[in-house]
């Protein structure tokens, strides 16, 4: 394991958390907090605002969930139905489900009630949950505002606001929705902003939302994990599908997360892999929530060998010991490369990230290397014969391909629409008690994960209803 994750820092017992929380943490298999947890938990317990940046997979979810549970139980109330005390905003459905699952895992010895709210599933369980007590609400911004408009949720009792993965919410065009939500909650509150990086946009947002915040930055800005082995294969676009099939067979990869730029490309690649007898499925904003949940569950338990995803759909995927990430196409925005490869090399476990790069993508590759301040090794794979028509890499040059219309963060960034993950509008969600025991969600803490495919189980709510398509 990485020394940064097992360094002789404080134990959870030294952070001032209540005994029921320490018990839940121990039952989840952790005794030593990660650096982000060790720094953030005391600051949140003290009641001040917080601006925190940490790489994906460093345990930041537990870094805010644990002290929030402690603070809410320190001042128990009997809230009105549908009037939560804590609001956690996240960019995607999958991340919402995983954060709420962490709330239930760590709060299972507390009588607090949590609820998750996002689109793509039957809305009726959500209506039912909002008619009862809700202490902690985890939601995507668009769906939350739908319910504000229907007057089914009351935000006037919010004591703690969390913006999780705030950088991704800005990238997805949620800034207006975030500001609408802010206008609906009390000004006297504790606000926590968590982000993978401290971009200039994040600092501007923090200046408008936070009051004299504490600041925690565990990783250097836009630095990929040192535990991820990165490599590049130079492959013409026309032969990438065949090359990927060869890589999977040549290395006997059993669990591979593959990124494509577009939804259509994800579908076509999954179809090709299936044709090559490699179990694969695609997830993106146009897939129903039921299909996305089913594919993710099969990928986590090892029955699905390859999961092909777009950037937005993959956000929030949290899999212990995911060994392999493949960039089938490089992202248009170099920061997205860091987010992608952050799916592996987590919690002290090494991983590998392979990029398939065509001549037209060399400009993007140079931008990525400039961002991470290192060259990525070019590797030749044995046993793959490039068809003669491809003229293997002759004439490769560094001419920059034109940027997509709209530029960075534009209206069609990476093939994904910025209208809340590109999903059509329809409602959904449901609720759970934080006191409900469940399979522990493995947020990255101290100690190795128990097995290759031990993962956070998907919340039971995801399979409910008719899996209607819905916006985030």
- Based on secondary structure, the structural category is alpha/beta
Strand content: 5-15%
The CATH topology of the largest domain comes to Rossmann fold
- CATH H-level name of the largest domain... which superfamily? P-loop containing nucleotide triphosphate hydrolases
Classified by CATH, the class of the largest domain is Alpha Beta
Can you count the beta strands?
15
Counted up, domains total 2
Question: Cα-atom Rg, whole angstroms?
Answer: 22 Å
Keywords summarizing the entry:
2 domains, alpha/beta, 472 residues, disordered C terminus, Rossmann fold
Descriptive notes:
With 472 residues, the chain is of the alpha/beta class. It has two domains: 12-221 and 422-463, 3-Layer(aba) Sandwich (Rossmann fold), CATH 3.40.50; 228-410, P-loop containing nucleotide triphosphate hydrolases (Rossmann fold, 3-Layer(aba) Sandwich), CATH 3.40.50. Helix content is 32%, strand content 14%. The chain is built from 15 helices and 15 strands. The protein has helices spanning 19-27, 35-45, 60-74, 93-106, 124-130, 141-149, 166-171, 175-184, 200-209, 240-251, 263-275, 289-301, 311-314, 334-341, 362-372; strands at 50-53, 86-89, 113-117, 136-139, 160-163, 190-195, 214-217, 228-234, 256-259, 280-283, 306-309, 324-327, 351-357, 377-378, 429-433. It has an eight-stranded mixed beta sheet with strand order 7-1-6-5-2-4-3-15, with helices on both faces. The protein has a seven-stranded parallel beta sheet with strand order 10-11-9-12-13-8-14, sandwiched between helices. α2 (35-45) packs parallel to α3, α6 (141-149) packs across α8 and α14 (334-341) packs across α15.
């Amino acid at each position: 394991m990485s020394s940064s994750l097992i360094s002789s820092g404080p134990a959870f017992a030294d952070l001032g958390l209540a005994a029921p929380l320490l018990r839940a943490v121990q039952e989840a298999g952790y005794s030593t907090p990660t650096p982000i947890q060790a720094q953030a938990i005391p600051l949140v317990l003290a009641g001040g605002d917080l601006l925190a940046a940490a790489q994906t997979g460093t345990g930041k979810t537990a870094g805010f969930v644990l002290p929030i549970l402690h603070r809410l139980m320190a001042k128990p109330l009997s809230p009105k139905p549908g009037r939560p005390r804590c609001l956690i905003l996240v960019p995607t459905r999958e991340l919402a489900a995983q954060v709420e699952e962490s709330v239930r895992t760590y709060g299972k010895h507390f009588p607090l009630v949590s609820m998750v709210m996002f689109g793509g599933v039957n809305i009726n369980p959500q209506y039912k949950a909002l008619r009862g007590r809700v202490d902690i609400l985890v939601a995507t911004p668009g769906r939350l505002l739908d319910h504000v408009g229907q007057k089914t949720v009351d935000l006037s009792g919010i004591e703690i606001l969390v913006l999780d993965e705030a950088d991704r919410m800005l990238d997805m065009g949620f800034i207006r929705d975030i500001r609408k939500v802010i206008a609906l909650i009390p000004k006297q509150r504790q606000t926590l902003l968590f982000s993978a990086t401290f971009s200039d946009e994040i600092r501007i947002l923090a200046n408008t939302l936070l009051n004299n915040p504490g600041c925690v930055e565990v990783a250097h800005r836009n630095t990929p994990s040192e535990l991820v082995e990165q490599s590049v294969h130079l492959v013409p676009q026309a032969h990438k599908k065949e090359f990927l099939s060869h890589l999977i067979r040549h290395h006997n990869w059993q669990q591979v997360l593959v990124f494509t730029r577009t939804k259509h490309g994800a579908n076509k690649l999954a179809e090709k892999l299936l044709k090559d007898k490699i179990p694969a499925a695609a997830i993106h904003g146009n897939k129903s929530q039921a299909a996305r949940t089913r594919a993710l569950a099969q990928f986590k338990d090892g029955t699905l060998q390859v999961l092909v995803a777009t950037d937005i759909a993959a956000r929030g995927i949290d899999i212990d010991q995911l060994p392999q990430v493949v960039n089938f196409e490089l992202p248009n925005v170099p920061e997205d490369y860091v987010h992608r490869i952050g799916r592996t090399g987590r919690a002290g476990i090494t991983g590998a990230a392979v990029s398939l790069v065509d001549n037209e993508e060399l400009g993007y590759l140079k931008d990525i290397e400039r961002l991470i301040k290192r060259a990525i090794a070019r590797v030749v794979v044995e046993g793959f014969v490039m068809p003669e028509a491809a003229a293997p890499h002759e004439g490769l040059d560094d001419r920059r391909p034109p940027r997509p219309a709209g530029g960075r963060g534009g209206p069609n960034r990476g093939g994904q629409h910025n209208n809340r993950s590109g999903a059509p509008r329809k409602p959904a969600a449901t609720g759970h008690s934080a006191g409900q025991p469940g399979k522990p969600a493995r947020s990255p803490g101290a100690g190795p994960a128990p097995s290759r495919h031990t993962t956070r189980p998907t919340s039971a709510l995801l399979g409910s209803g008719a899996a209607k398509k819905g916006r985030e």
